[in-house]
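BUG: 3D viewer hangs when loading the predicted structure for this chain

Environment: internal workstation, default settings.
Expected: structure renders.
Actual: progress bar stalls at 90%.

Input used:
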Amino acid sequence: MALIRRLDGIFMDQSLLLRPGGRTDLDPAPLLRLAEEFDRLGDLAQAERARGLHASLR
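Structure tokens produced before the viewer hung:
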């Protein structure tokens, strides 16, 4: 459940992905880590959500 909340939080506030000290430079890498965790747990739909957002931010 915490993983879904984290992913939802990033969807709603992408500034959570800002690089330290940056104002506009996003680091989408945490989305791939979330996707891997969802895969490991067998939640493929959430894994795909995380990967989709990652792709849209690259």
